[in-house]
Amino acid sequence: MRYKNIPLDFSKPFDSNALSECAQALSDQYPFLGIGYLGKSILGVDIPYFILGEGKKEILYVGAHHGMEWITSLLLVRFLLDACELAERKKSIHQVPLEFLLERYTLYVLPMLNPDGVGYQIHGVDEANPLYGRLISMNGGSTDFSRWQANARGVDLNHNYDAGFWEYKQIELDNGIENGAPTKYSGECPESEPEVAYLCNFIRFHENIQGILTLHTQGEEIFYQAGCVLSRKQERIAKELSALTDYRLSRTEGSACFGGLTDWCVQRLGLPSYTLECGKGENPLPLTQAIPIYARLRRALFRFPLFF
What we know:
The protein is an alpha/beta fold. Helices cover 37% and strands 17% of the residues. The chain is built from ten helices and ten strands. The strands form two sheets. Strands 1-2-6-3-7-10-8-9 form an eight-stranded mixed β-sheet, sandwiched between helices. α2 (71-88) crosses α10 (290-303). It is globular. The protein starts with 15 loop residues before the first helix and ends in a 5-residue tail after the last helix. 48% of the residues are buried.
């Protein structure tokens, strides 16, 4: 499918500047698509989200908690493009009439929660960065940030939610993680990082959110159990997602059991939430995987709202 005037390039890494260009082009091309801002990252970068539809039931999609996982932002923007084009033409996809979908549901799409971490991973860290010295120390003295997952000050955003947070602190100590790091440092307290605090407040204040889908990479797995007794709905939807994607249902193990968005939503809010680990290989996944991953996910992305 071709899109006029939308600068979505599957041949190069997708950073916050690319997202900003797409956001402006989307706004110009599709006036029915709303754009909001979660807030600003630590380095002052806007964190946009998109609003599609006018229905009472609300669904949230989230990408790029981690610096190396920016391909998930690319996937979500492609999903938005498909949805907007099909809605404008009043078409259906995977037995989902877009006109019906957007009358009944409101979709919130947050492609890139961690723009600073994505920027570090793609471009490295400039000496003008006010945290430069501290970041080099966190990174083991190296100027190579290609393995960076955390946010601008070394906090892993998907360990910064209030779900087993304090239990995870002992795991950090056991692994010698006492301060900021490229990955797996949870921060000083739950929601210490503005990106996570903004997202938690967004979810708290949108009482009609029915379900959340978070994209990570990699492994072709779906995590949904969050270490607690699950509702029948949570179990049912997990099986539906597995059938649509052919991703296997998995249990989190070790440090992955603590402090994530899915953990917080399920444990604290009783809100059906799912983590999809997209693609296979080593992060960051090569861009050659982007289109095949999207082709495999597209049906689930469009049908997910209909589970509620």
